[in-house]
Every structure is written in C-alpha cells, then in structure tokens.
Amino acid sequence: MSSTDQPTSIQVWDPIVRYGHWGLVIAFAVAYLSGEDESGGPDQLHVLSGYAIGLILAIRVVWGLVGTGHARFSEFKYSPTAALFYFAEEIQGRAKRYIGHSPAAWYMIAALLVSLTATVWTGVVANSDGGKSPRASAQGLVIAQAHADEHKGRSESGGGKHGEGAESVAGELHGALANFTLGLIILHILGVGLASVMHRENLVAAMVSGRKRSEGER
User: What does the alpha-carbon distance between residue 28 and residue 23 come to, in Å, rounded to a whole number?
Assistant: First the structure.
C-alpha cells in the first residue's frame, strides 16, 4: 500500500444495531448502579431503566428477524464447536477475522439477550403484587406509597404471604441474574479488546461509526 492509499471501509452495523447496543450499555449501567430507595423499594430510576432495557431488547429481537445485513439472526449459523474453536484460536492470536460477528461473538450475543431478558422479567415479577399487578403507575411508573401500605396490610393479615414469597424468590433471582449478566459483559469487553488488538481494528469505534475495514484490507 502506498503512502497515499487509505484503507477502505464498509458499512457493517446499521443505526438500530449501534443505538440499541449503546442504549443497552447505558440502561444496564443505570439499572445496576441504582437499587433500592430509602423506603426499601426499588428506586424509580432502576425501574425506568429496567423497562428501557426490555424495550430495547424487544426492538433488537424484531430487527434480528426482519433487519438487514449483519443484524439478522440468520447469520447465526455456527455450531458450539465452531465457537469454541474460534475462542481457542483467538487466545492463540491466530483467529480468522470476520466482517460481522465471529462465532464466539454470536454465542455471547445470544447469552446476553437471554440473560438480560430473564433479568428484566424477574425484576418485573419482584416489583409486582404477587406477580400480578406492577407497582409502576400509568403516569410515570412511580411506586405508590399507598400501594405499599395496602400490600403491607394484606401481608400482616396473612393474605399476602404467597405473593411475598414469590416476590422474594424473584428478587433474589433478579439480583443473581444481574450479577451473571455483568459477568457476561466483562467477558464480552475482554473479547472485544483481544479481537481489536489481534486484528488491529478498533471494534468499539466500529460500533460507534458502523464502519469496519473492508475484508481485503489487513
């Protein structure tokens, strides 16, 4: 390549993939860092960010089915053996470069989608009256103190024991899933960093601009 030549790049990630990716990053960070408020219930910011995660996940799943290019789930055609083989070669610094997601990245995406969905679902159950009616108000998903008092009254009379048990189990599972998801995210970051160094390509910048070096460029 001459000094005047510039590496060519191609558009890989569309806006929905990119905005959804960074939206999940922000929403999960906010949800994870915000927890219970002073009254012992879930913080309003935690609830709102949890619903934001659920909305982004729904959009991403739909886009994976009807979207274009490398956003489609139809590209997910690798066996677990292929993913493990890729991971082993990546550690050795000789894994093949993919324009879209690598085999290991596809399985990480699937794991994150499932884990995030389960985390949101258990959060909804834990933040409900026995798993039936969300505590979020229609005006802004604000937790109503009157509802909490009513729930406490039922609990004291013995009528809410089953609901409390369900909420307690869901709450514990919600916390465990959130930590598990955080672990997956850390592994994902390490994998992105390793691939960026190995292929001499800034994958974080690629997820911002949507562009990557063309397949023929090294």
Answer: 8
| Global pTM value | 0.76
Structure tokens at 151: 């729930």
Q: Say whether pLDDT at 142 is over 70.
A: no
Residue 116: both structure tokens together: 């995030």
Gyration radius of the chain's alpha carbons: 22
Q: Which two tokens stand for residue 20?
A: 């959804």
Query: Which of 205, 192, 12 has the alpha carbon at shortest distance from 112?
Result: 192
CB half-sphere exposure, 87, CA atoms < 13 A: 16
Q: How far apart are CA 109 and CA 113, in angstroms?
A: 6
The DSSP string of 158-173 is: TTTHHHHHHHHHHHHH
Domains and CATH numbers, the chain: 9-213 (1.20.950)
